[in-house]
Amino acid sequence: MRKITERVIWVFISLLLAVPLCAQGEFWGELKAGPYGVGFRATYQADTARWYDADYPSPGKPQVKKPRPILVALWYPAPPGQGKAMLHRDYFRVLTLDSGAPEFAPRLRKFTHDQAALYMLGKEFDDLSADERGRYDGLLATPVVAVLNAPAAEGRFPVVIYHPGLGGTYEDNAVACEFLASHGYVVVSSAYQPADSSGLSINGDLETSFADLAFLLRYAVTLPFVDADKVAAIGHSYGAQAVLGWRAQPGSPLDAVVFLDSALEYAGFDAPQFTRLKAAVVRNPRSSTPIVLFADRSRHPKFETFEPYLKFAPRYEAGTPALEHNSFVSQGAVVKDDEVRRRYEAVCDLALKFLDAYVRGDAEALKALHAANLRYRAPAPAPPTGAQLARLYRTETPANAQSLMKASDSEAVIGAASILFDGDEKKQAVDLLKSAARLLPRSAAVAEALADALQQTGDLPAARTTYEKALSLLPGDDTLTEIEKGQLRQSIEAALKK
Protein backbone atom coordinates (compact mmCIF):
# COMPACT_ATOMS: atom_id res chain seq x y z
CA MET A 1 0.00 0.00 0.00
CA ARG A 2 2.84 2.38 0.85
CA LYS A 3 4.54 1.74 -2.51
CA ILE A 4 1.29 2.51 -4.32
CA THR A 5 0.85 5.70 -2.30
CA GLU A 6 4.44 6.77 -3.01
CA ARG A 7 3.93 6.09 -6.70
CA VAL A 8 0.76 8.21 -6.72
CA ILE A 9 2.61 11.02 -4.92
CA TRP A 10 5.47 10.92 -7.41
CA VAL A 11 3.03 10.97 -10.33
CA PHE A 12 1.31 13.95 -8.73
CA ILE A 13 4.64 15.76 -8.23
CA SER A 14 5.61 15.02 -11.85
CA LEU A 15 2.36 16.51 -13.03
CA LEU A 16 2.94 19.59 -10.90
CA LEU A 17 6.36 20.01 -12.48
CA ALA A 18 4.98 19.52 -15.95
CA VAL A 19 1.84 21.64 -15.57
CA PRO A 20 2.15 25.35 -14.76
CA LEU A 21 1.44 26.07 -11.12
CA CYS A 22 -1.37 28.61 -11.41
CA ALA A 23 -4.88 27.89 -12.54
CA GLN A 24 -6.90 29.59 -15.29
CA GLY A 25 -4.98 32.28 -17.14
CA GLU A 26 -1.62 31.19 -15.74
CA PHE A 27 0.12 32.13 -18.98
CA TRP A 28 -0.99 35.72 -18.41
CA GLY A 29 1.33 36.24 -15.45
CA GLU A 30 0.72 39.75 -14.08
CA LEU A 31 -1.31 41.10 -17.00
CA LYS A 32 -4.53 42.74 -15.85
CA ALA A 33 -7.66 41.55 -17.59
CA GLY A 34 -10.15 44.05 -18.95
CA PRO A 35 -13.87 44.16 -18.14
CA TYR A 36 -14.82 41.41 -20.59
CA GLY A 37 -14.58 37.69 -20.68
CA VAL A 38 -12.93 36.19 -23.77
CA GLY A 39 -14.67 34.10 -26.38
CA PHE A 40 -12.93 32.11 -29.08
CA ARG A 41 -14.12 30.46 -32.26
CA ALA A 42 -12.48 29.10 -35.38
CA THR A 43 -13.97 28.51 -38.79
CA TYR A 44 -12.87 28.05 -42.37
CA GLN A 45 -13.87 30.30 -45.24
CA ALA A 46 -13.22 29.70 -48.94
CA ASP A 47 -11.46 32.33 -51.01
CA THR A 48 -12.84 31.54 -54.43
CA ALA A 49 -10.62 34.17 -56.05
CA ARG A 50 -7.56 31.94 -55.52
CA TRP A 51 -6.88 28.29 -56.30
CA TYR A 52 -5.34 25.99 -53.73
CA ASP A 53 -4.21 22.34 -53.72
CA ALA A 54 -5.60 21.56 -57.17
CA ASP A 55 -5.53 17.91 -58.22
CA TYR A 56 -3.14 16.95 -61.00
CA PRO A 57 -5.31 16.74 -64.13
CA SER A 58 -5.99 13.29 -65.50
CA PRO A 59 -5.51 12.83 -69.26
CA GLY A 60 -8.57 14.07 -71.08
CA LYS A 61 -10.20 15.52 -67.96
CA PRO A 62 -10.37 19.18 -66.92
CA GLN A 63 -8.49 20.32 -63.83
CA VAL A 64 -10.75 20.69 -60.81
CA LYS A 65 -10.54 24.10 -59.17
CA LYS A 66 -10.39 24.27 -55.38
CA PRO A 67 -10.72 27.56 -53.51
CA ARG A 68 -8.06 28.59 -51.02
CA PRO A 69 -9.13 27.66 -47.46
CA ILE A 70 -8.78 30.53 -44.99
CA LEU A 71 -8.68 29.77 -41.30
CA VAL A 72 -10.51 32.50 -39.40
CA ALA A 73 -9.59 32.39 -35.71
CA LEU A 74 -11.40 34.92 -33.54
CA TRP A 75 -10.82 36.12 -30.00
CA TYR A 76 -13.58 38.50 -28.97
CA PRO A 77 -15.12 40.22 -25.94
CA ALA A 78 -17.68 38.05 -24.16
CA PRO A 79 -19.80 38.52 -21.04
CA PRO A 80 -17.84 37.30 -17.97
CA GLY A 81 -18.50 33.83 -16.60
CA GLN A 82 -19.78 32.22 -19.80
CA GLY A 83 -18.41 28.73 -19.34
CA LYS A 84 -15.36 26.58 -18.78
CA ALA A 85 -12.09 27.94 -20.12
CA MET A 86 -10.29 26.07 -22.87
CA LEU A 87 -7.01 24.28 -22.34
CA HIS A 88 -4.10 25.38 -24.47
CA ARG A 89 -4.30 22.13 -26.47
CA ASP A 90 -7.82 23.15 -27.55
CA TYR A 91 -6.23 25.75 -29.82
CA PHE A 92 -5.09 22.75 -31.88
CA ARG A 93 -8.21 20.65 -31.41
CA VAL A 94 -10.56 23.34 -32.76
CA LEU A 95 -8.81 23.24 -36.11
CA THR A 96 -10.65 20.04 -37.03
CA LEU A 97 -14.04 20.84 -35.46
CA ASP A 98 -15.24 22.83 -38.47
CA SER A 99 -15.88 20.66 -41.51
CA GLY A 100 -15.26 23.53 -43.91
CA ALA A 101 -11.79 22.30 -44.99
CA PRO A 102 -11.72 18.50 -44.63
CA GLU A 103 -8.40 18.00 -46.43
CA PHE A 104 -6.61 21.07 -45.12
CA ALA A 105 -7.70 21.07 -41.46
CA PRO A 106 -6.02 17.82 -40.27
CA ARG A 107 -2.73 18.89 -41.85
CA LEU A 108 -2.98 22.29 -40.21
CA ARG A 109 -3.78 20.79 -36.81
CA LYS A 110 -0.71 18.54 -36.85
CA PHE A 111 1.54 21.30 -38.17
CA THR A 112 0.32 23.78 -35.52
CA HIS A 113 0.74 21.24 -32.69
CA ASP A 114 4.25 20.28 -33.79
CA GLN A 115 5.37 23.83 -34.53
CA ALA A 116 4.28 25.01 -31.08
CA ALA A 117 6.75 22.52 -29.58
CA LEU A 118 9.54 24.23 -31.50
CA TYR A 119 8.52 27.65 -30.14
CA MET A 120 7.97 26.47 -26.57
CA LEU A 121 10.74 23.90 -26.11
CA GLY A 122 13.14 24.73 -28.92
CA LYS A 123 12.88 21.31 -30.57
CA GLU A 124 10.92 19.68 -33.34
CA PHE A 125 8.14 17.60 -31.81
CA ASP A 126 9.55 14.35 -33.21
CA ASP A 127 12.88 15.08 -31.51
CA LEU A 128 11.44 15.53 -28.01
CA SER A 129 12.55 13.06 -25.36
CA ALA A 130 9.99 11.27 -23.19
CA ASP A 131 10.55 13.81 -20.39
CA GLU A 132 10.22 16.71 -22.81
CA ARG A 133 7.00 15.28 -24.20
CA GLY A 134 5.70 15.08 -20.67
CA ARG A 135 6.54 18.72 -20.15
CA TYR A 136 4.92 19.65 -23.45
CA ASP A 137 1.76 17.76 -22.49
CA GLY A 138 1.76 19.71 -19.25
CA LEU A 139 2.00 23.02 -21.07
CA LEU A 140 -0.82 22.03 -23.39
CA ALA A 141 -2.96 21.04 -20.37
CA THR A 142 -2.74 24.59 -18.99
CA PRO A 143 -6.09 26.40 -18.86
CA VAL A 144 -6.24 29.56 -20.95
CA VAL A 145 -8.66 32.46 -20.58
CA ALA A 146 -10.75 31.95 -23.72
CA VAL A 147 -14.06 30.10 -23.68
CA LEU A 148 -14.88 28.19 -26.84
CA ASN A 149 -17.88 29.58 -28.73
CA ALA A 150 -18.93 31.90 -25.90
CA PRO A 151 -21.56 34.47 -26.90
CA ALA A 152 -20.18 37.86 -27.87
CA ALA A 153 -20.63 40.80 -25.53
CA GLU A 154 -23.12 43.46 -26.53
CA GLY A 155 -21.76 46.31 -28.58
CA ARG A 156 -19.38 46.77 -31.49
CA PHE A 157 -15.64 46.55 -30.99
CA PRO A 158 -12.49 47.54 -32.91
CA VAL A 159 -10.87 44.76 -34.94
CA VAL A 160 -7.18 43.82 -34.84
CA ILE A 161 -5.72 41.53 -37.52
CA TYR A 162 -2.74 39.47 -36.32
CA HIS A 163 -0.03 38.03 -38.60
CA PRO A 164 2.59 35.58 -37.22
CA GLY A 165 6.16 35.34 -38.52
CA LEU A 166 7.94 32.78 -40.69
CA GLY A 167 7.21 29.35 -39.25
CA GLY A 168 4.77 30.89 -36.78
CA THR A 169 1.27 29.61 -36.10
CA TYR A 170 -2.06 31.37 -35.80
CA GLU A 171 -2.13 31.10 -31.98
CA ASP A 172 1.56 31.74 -31.25
CA ASN A 173 0.65 35.01 -29.50
CA ALA A 174 -2.55 33.76 -27.88
CA VAL A 175 -1.90 35.59 -24.60
CA ALA A 176 -1.82 38.97 -26.37
CA CYS A 177 -4.92 38.02 -28.38
CA GLU A 178 -6.84 37.03 -25.23
CA PHE A 179 -5.59 40.08 -23.35
CA LEU A 180 -6.77 42.49 -26.05
CA ALA A 181 -10.13 40.73 -26.32
CA SER A 182 -10.66 41.18 -22.57
CA HIS A 183 -10.14 44.91 -23.11
CA GLY A 184 -12.71 45.14 -25.88
CA TYR A 185 -10.96 44.21 -29.14
CA VAL A 186 -11.85 41.54 -31.68
CA VAL A 187 -8.61 39.85 -32.72
CA VAL A 188 -8.44 37.82 -35.93
CA SER A 189 -5.62 35.48 -36.92
CA SER A 190 -5.03 32.87 -39.60
CA ALA A 191 -2.57 30.28 -40.92
CA TYR A 192 -1.30 32.40 -43.86
CA GLN A 193 -0.18 29.18 -45.55
CA PRO A 194 1.85 29.43 -48.77
CA ALA A 195 0.02 29.58 -52.07
CA ASP A 196 1.81 26.32 -52.95
CA SER A 197 -0.06 23.71 -50.92
CA SER A 198 2.99 21.45 -50.53
CA GLY A 199 3.87 23.15 -47.21
CA LEU A 200 2.14 24.98 -44.37
CA SER A 201 4.94 27.08 -42.91
CA ILE A 202 4.54 30.82 -43.64
CA ASN A 203 7.10 31.52 -46.35
CA GLY A 204 7.36 35.30 -46.70
CA ASP A 205 5.26 35.81 -49.83
CA LEU A 206 3.95 39.35 -49.38
CA GLU A 207 1.26 39.05 -52.05
CA THR A 208 -0.23 36.02 -50.29
CA SER A 209 -0.14 37.84 -46.96
CA PHE A 210 -1.78 40.97 -48.36
CA ALA A 211 -4.56 38.92 -49.93
CA ASP A 212 -5.16 36.92 -46.74
CA LEU A 213 -5.13 40.05 -44.55
CA ALA A 214 -7.67 41.74 -46.81
CA PHE A 215 -9.86 38.61 -46.85
CA LEU A 216 -9.81 38.38 -43.04
CA LEU A 217 -10.82 42.01 -42.70
CA ARG A 218 -13.65 41.64 -45.23
CA TYR A 219 -14.94 38.70 -43.20
CA ALA A 220 -14.50 40.40 -39.83
CA VAL A 221 -16.48 43.50 -40.74
CA THR A 222 -19.51 41.32 -41.51
CA LEU A 223 -19.70 40.28 -37.85
CA PRO A 224 -22.36 42.16 -35.86
CA PHE A 225 -19.99 42.84 -32.96
CA VAL A 226 -17.19 44.39 -35.07
CA ASP A 227 -16.80 48.15 -35.56
CA ALA A 228 -15.65 48.39 -39.18
CA ASP A 229 -14.46 51.97 -38.68
CA LYS A 230 -11.74 50.98 -36.21
CA VAL A 231 -9.08 48.67 -37.66
CA ALA A 232 -5.54 47.84 -36.52
CA ALA A 233 -2.91 45.20 -37.28
CA ILE A 234 -0.23 43.46 -35.25
CA GLY A 235 2.62 41.43 -36.72
CA HIS A 236 5.63 39.56 -35.40
CA SER A 237 8.84 39.02 -37.35
CA TYR A 238 7.93 38.55 -41.03
CA GLY A 239 4.33 39.17 -39.96
CA ALA A 240 5.37 42.66 -38.85
CA GLN A 241 6.92 43.23 -42.26
CA ALA A 242 3.70 42.05 -43.91
CA VAL A 243 1.46 44.42 -41.94
CA LEU A 244 3.90 47.28 -42.63
CA GLY A 245 3.57 46.57 -46.35
CA TRP A 246 -0.22 46.27 -46.00
CA ARG A 247 -0.25 49.62 -44.22
CA ALA A 248 1.34 51.14 -47.34
CA GLN A 249 -1.18 49.70 -49.78
CA PRO A 250 -3.27 52.37 -51.55
CA GLY A 251 -6.45 52.95 -49.59
CA SER A 252 -5.18 51.00 -46.56
CA PRO A 253 -7.93 50.65 -43.92
CA LEU A 254 -5.52 50.62 -40.97
CA ASP A 255 -5.78 53.09 -38.10
CA ALA A 256 -2.75 51.75 -36.20
CA VAL A 257 0.03 49.15 -36.49
CA VAL A 258 1.94 47.26 -33.78
CA PHE A 259 5.31 46.06 -35.06
CA LEU A 260 6.96 43.24 -33.05
CA ASP A 261 10.68 42.61 -33.63
CA SER A 262 10.58 42.37 -37.41
CA ALA A 263 14.36 41.89 -38.01
CA LEU A 264 14.14 44.86 -40.38
CA GLU A 265 15.25 47.23 -37.62
CA TYR A 266 18.54 45.37 -37.16
CA ALA A 267 19.56 44.92 -40.81
CA GLY A 268 18.11 48.14 -42.26
CA PHE A 269 15.75 48.70 -45.18
CA ASP A 270 18.53 48.48 -47.74
CA ALA A 271 19.44 44.89 -46.85
CA PRO A 272 18.85 42.71 -49.95
CA GLN A 273 16.35 40.42 -48.21
CA PHE A 274 13.98 43.38 -47.85
CA THR A 275 13.96 44.53 -51.48
CA ARG A 276 10.38 43.44 -52.13
CA LEU A 277 9.15 44.87 -48.85
CA LYS A 278 10.83 48.19 -49.58
CA ALA A 279 9.14 48.28 -52.98
CA ALA A 280 5.78 47.72 -51.27
CA VAL A 281 6.37 50.39 -48.62
CA VAL A 282 7.49 53.12 -51.03
CA ARG A 283 4.16 52.84 -52.85
CA ASN A 284 2.61 55.04 -50.18
CA PRO A 285 5.25 57.15 -48.42
CA ARG A 286 2.55 59.62 -47.37
CA SER A 287 0.84 57.14 -45.05
CA SER A 288 0.08 58.74 -41.71
CA THR A 289 -1.10 55.57 -39.94
CA PRO A 290 0.44 55.56 -36.44
CA ILE A 291 2.89 52.79 -35.60
CA VAL A 292 4.74 51.47 -32.56
CA LEU A 293 7.99 49.60 -33.22
CA PHE A 294 9.16 47.04 -30.64
CA ALA A 295 12.71 45.69 -30.74
CA ASP A 296 15.36 44.33 -28.39
CA ARG A 297 17.57 47.29 -27.51
CA SER A 298 20.50 45.01 -26.64
CA ARG A 299 20.69 44.18 -30.36
CA HIS A 300 21.01 47.89 -31.24
CA PRO A 301 17.99 48.39 -33.50
CA LYS A 302 18.39 50.95 -36.27
CA PHE A 303 15.06 52.68 -35.90
CA GLU A 304 16.31 55.48 -38.13
CA THR A 305 15.95 53.11 -41.11
CA PHE A 306 12.20 53.77 -40.98
CA GLU A 307 12.43 57.57 -41.13
CA PRO A 308 12.01 58.03 -44.93
CA TYR A 309 8.96 55.76 -44.96
CA LEU A 310 7.19 56.70 -41.72
CA LYS A 311 7.96 60.40 -41.37
CA PHE A 312 4.33 61.49 -41.77
CA ALA A 313 3.06 59.11 -39.06
CA PRO A 314 3.10 59.35 -35.27
CA ARG A 315 5.83 56.84 -34.41
CA TYR A 316 6.92 55.23 -31.16
CA GLU A 317 10.21 53.37 -30.80
CA ALA A 318 10.15 50.85 -27.96
CA GLY A 319 13.53 49.32 -27.23
CA THR A 320 12.84 46.54 -24.75
CA PRO A 321 15.27 45.03 -22.25
CA ALA A 322 16.85 41.88 -23.70
CA LEU A 323 14.22 39.67 -25.33
CA GLU A 324 14.89 36.79 -27.69
CA HIS A 325 13.14 37.10 -31.02
CA ASN A 326 10.44 34.53 -30.23
CA SER A 327 9.87 35.95 -26.74
CA PHE A 328 7.97 38.81 -28.35
CA VAL A 329 5.11 36.29 -28.68
CA SER A 330 3.57 34.31 -25.87
CA GLN A 331 4.60 30.83 -27.03
CA GLY A 332 8.23 31.84 -26.71
CA ALA A 333 7.82 33.90 -23.54
CA VAL A 334 5.62 31.84 -21.22
CA VAL A 335 8.20 29.05 -20.87
CA LYS A 336 10.97 31.46 -19.89
CA ASP A 337 11.86 32.83 -16.46
CA ASP A 338 9.81 35.48 -14.67
CA GLU A 339 11.99 38.34 -15.88
CA VAL A 340 11.44 37.48 -19.55
CA ARG A 341 7.75 37.01 -18.95
CA ARG A 342 7.44 40.42 -17.29
CA ARG A 343 9.16 41.98 -20.31
CA TYR A 344 6.73 40.25 -22.66
CA GLU A 345 3.81 41.42 -20.51
CA ALA A 346 5.14 44.99 -20.68
CA VAL A 347 5.04 44.75 -24.49
CA CYS A 348 1.40 43.62 -24.33
CA ASP A 349 0.51 46.44 -21.95
CA LEU A 350 2.16 49.11 -24.12
CA ALA A 351 0.50 47.70 -27.24
CA LEU A 352 -2.88 48.03 -25.51
CA LYS A 353 -2.19 51.65 -24.53
CA PHE A 354 -1.12 52.42 -28.10
CA LEU A 355 -4.27 50.86 -29.60
CA ASP A 356 -6.53 52.58 -27.07
CA ALA A 357 -4.88 55.90 -27.89
CA TYR A 358 -4.97 55.69 -31.67
CA VAL A 359 -7.82 53.32 -32.48
CA ARG A 360 -10.23 54.38 -29.75
CA GLY A 361 -8.99 57.96 -29.41
CA ASP A 362 -8.57 57.58 -25.64
CA ALA A 363 -6.83 60.72 -24.33
CA GLU A 364 -5.82 59.08 -21.04
CA ALA A 365 -4.22 56.17 -22.91
CA LEU A 366 -2.30 58.64 -25.08
CA LYS A 367 -1.10 60.45 -21.94
CA ALA A 368 0.01 57.14 -20.40
CA LEU A 369 1.77 56.18 -23.64
CA HIS A 370 3.78 59.39 -23.64
CA ALA A 371 4.65 58.86 -19.98
CA ALA A 372 6.12 55.42 -20.78
CA ASN A 373 9.77 54.85 -21.61
CA LEU A 374 9.35 55.20 -25.38
CA ARG A 375 10.89 57.50 -27.95
CA TYR A 376 8.18 59.45 -29.72
CA ARG A 377 8.73 60.75 -33.25
CA ALA A 378 6.23 63.47 -34.07
CA PRO A 379 4.92 63.30 -37.64
CA ALA A 380 5.88 65.79 -40.27
CA PRO A 381 2.87 67.51 -41.87
CA ALA A 382 1.64 65.17 -44.59
CA PRO A 383 1.69 66.76 -48.05
CA PRO A 384 -1.54 66.81 -50.06
CA THR A 385 -2.23 64.12 -52.61
CA GLY A 386 -2.67 65.00 -56.26
CA ALA A 387 -6.47 65.01 -55.93
CA GLN A 388 -6.32 67.17 -52.79
CA LEU A 389 -3.89 69.59 -54.41
CA ALA A 390 -6.11 69.96 -57.48
CA ARG A 391 -9.12 70.82 -55.31
CA LEU A 392 -7.06 73.26 -53.24
CA TYR A 393 -5.55 74.87 -56.35
CA ARG A 394 -9.06 75.67 -57.58
CA THR A 395 -10.15 77.31 -54.33
CA GLU A 396 -7.06 78.82 -52.68
CA THR A 397 -5.40 82.17 -53.40
CA PRO A 398 -2.27 82.06 -55.58
CA ALA A 399 -0.06 82.64 -52.51
CA ASN A 400 -1.66 79.77 -50.60
CA ALA A 401 -1.43 77.54 -53.65
CA GLN A 402 2.30 78.27 -53.90
CA SER A 403 2.71 77.37 -50.23
CA LEU A 404 0.87 74.07 -50.73
CA MET A 405 3.06 73.16 -53.69
CA LYS A 406 6.18 73.75 -51.60
CA ALA A 407 4.96 71.02 -49.27
CA SER A 408 4.19 68.65 -52.18
CA ASP A 409 6.36 66.29 -54.16
CA SER A 410 6.56 65.95 -57.92
CA GLU A 411 4.16 63.01 -58.02
CA ALA A 412 1.39 65.00 -56.30
CA VAL A 413 1.94 68.05 -58.49
CA ILE A 414 1.86 66.02 -61.70
CA GLY A 415 -1.23 64.18 -60.48
CA ALA A 416 -3.00 67.46 -59.71
CA ALA A 417 -2.12 68.87 -63.13
CA SER A 418 -3.44 65.71 -64.80
CA ILE A 419 -6.75 66.07 -62.93
CA LEU A 420 -7.06 69.71 -63.98
CA PHE A 421 -6.15 68.88 -67.58
CA ASP A 422 -8.69 66.07 -67.76
CA GLY A 423 -11.29 68.44 -66.34
CA ASP A 424 -10.77 70.80 -69.29
CA GLU A 425 -8.91 73.24 -67.04
CA LYS A 426 -5.86 73.21 -69.29
CA LYS A 427 -4.65 76.74 -68.57
CA GLN A 428 -4.78 76.10 -64.82
CA ALA A 429 -2.86 72.84 -65.33
CA VAL A 430 -0.11 74.61 -67.30
CA ASP A 431 0.08 77.42 -64.71
CA LEU A 432 0.35 74.89 -61.90
CA LEU A 433 3.18 73.04 -63.64
CA LYS A 434 5.02 76.27 -64.42
CA SER A 435 4.85 77.20 -60.72
CA ALA A 436 5.96 73.70 -59.76
CA ALA A 437 8.91 73.86 -62.17
CA ARG A 438 10.12 77.00 -60.35
CA LEU A 439 9.62 75.39 -56.93
CA LEU A 440 11.14 72.04 -57.96
CA PRO A 441 13.85 73.15 -60.43
CA ARG A 442 15.75 69.83 -60.30
CA SER A 443 12.72 67.63 -61.04
CA ALA A 444 12.97 66.02 -64.47
CA ALA A 445 9.50 64.54 -64.00
CA VAL A 446 7.87 67.95 -63.45
CA ALA A 447 9.71 69.39 -66.47
CA GLU A 448 8.57 66.49 -68.64
CA ALA A 449 4.95 66.91 -67.44
CA LEU A 450 5.09 70.63 -68.22
CA ALA A 451 6.48 69.88 -71.70
CA ASP A 452 3.62 67.42 -72.30
CA ALA A 453 1.06 70.05 -71.24
CA LEU A 454 2.64 72.72 -73.45
CA GLN A 455 2.66 70.35 -76.42
CA GLN A 456 -1.01 69.44 -75.93
CA THR A 457 -2.00 73.12 -75.70
CA GLY A 458 -0.19 73.91 -78.95
CA ASP A 459 2.92 75.75 -77.67
CA LEU A 460 5.35 73.51 -79.55
CA PRO A 461 8.53 75.68 -79.33
CA ALA A 462 8.17 75.98 -75.54
CA ALA A 463 7.41 72.26 -75.34
CA ARG A 464 10.63 71.34 -77.20
CA THR A 465 12.72 73.63 -75.00
CA THR A 466 11.17 72.13 -71.87
CA TYR A 467 11.65 68.53 -73.07
CA GLU A 468 15.33 69.30 -73.64
CA LYS A 469 15.59 70.78 -70.15
CA ALA A 470 13.94 67.67 -68.68
CA LEU A 471 16.49 65.52 -70.49
CA SER A 472 19.35 67.57 -69.02
CA LEU A 473 17.90 67.25 -65.50
CA LEU A 474 17.64 63.44 -65.57
CA PRO A 475 21.20 62.53 -64.45
CA GLY A 476 21.01 64.71 -61.32
CA ASP A 477 17.43 63.93 -60.26
CA ASP A 478 17.96 61.82 -57.14
CA THR A 479 14.20 61.43 -56.57
CA LEU A 480 14.06 58.89 -59.42
CA THR A 481 15.36 55.35 -59.55
CA GLU A 482 17.55 54.28 -62.45
CA ILE A 483 14.63 52.35 -63.92
CA GLU A 484 12.39 55.42 -63.67
CA LYS A 485 15.10 57.56 -65.28
CA GLY A 486 15.36 55.11 -68.17
CA GLN A 487 11.60 55.11 -68.70
CA LEU A 488 11.42 58.91 -68.55
CA ARG A 489 14.31 59.23 -70.99
CA GLN A 490 12.54 57.00 -73.51
CA SER A 491 9.35 59.06 -73.18
CA ILE A 492 11.16 62.40 -73.63
CA GLU A 493 13.19 61.19 -76.60
CA ALA A 494 10.06 59.84 -78.29
CA ALA A 495 8.34 63.21 -77.80
CA LEU A 496 11.31 65.11 -79.29
CA LYS A 497 11.19 62.98 -82.42
CA LYS A 498 7.61 63.97 -83.17
Describe this structure in words.
Helix content is 45%, strand content 14%. The chain is α/β, with parallel strands linked by helices. The protein has two domains: 2-53 and 65-377, Alpha/Beta hydrolase fold, catalytic domain (Rossmann fold); 386-497, Alpha Horseshoe (Serine Threonine Protein Phosphatase 5, Tetratricopeptide repeat), CATH 1.25.40.10. α16 (410-422) packs parallel to α18 and α19 runs antiparallel to α20 (482-497). The protein is elongated and about 85 Å long.
Write a brief caption for the model:
With 498 residues, this protein is of the alpha/beta class. It has helices at residues 2-18, 90-93, 104-121, 130-140, 174-182, 206-220, 238-247, 264-267, 275-281, 307-310, 330-333, 338-358, 363-371, 386-395, 398-406, 410-422, 426-439, 444-456, 460-473, 482-497; strands spanning 37-51, 67-78, 147-148, 157-163, 186-189, 226-236, 256-260, 291-296, 315-320, 375-377. The relative contact order is 0.08.
